[in-house]
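Need tokens for this chain, all 85 residues.
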Amino acid sequence: MRTPTLLALAALLAPLALSAPAAANEVQPEQKMICKYRMQTGTRFKTKTCKTAAEWEEIAEANRNALKEAVDRPQIKVCGPNGCD
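Here are the structure tokens for all 85 residues:
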């Protein structure tokens, strides 16, 4: 009588046991490696750079901040001896 119960229980738990390691091996989207090829100044060859999605986003954010700072920086007007034009 116990054998059919154990077999039924094993049949119910088998899909859970198989799916657990697969879920552990899945890579989160922000941890996935993304490789980009970029032209290197002074050569015709490309360099391959691999980083996680989160690292690429940090680089993009730093570039956006640097550009915003350069655009918002006050401009100094240089005047000649005859005054400003």
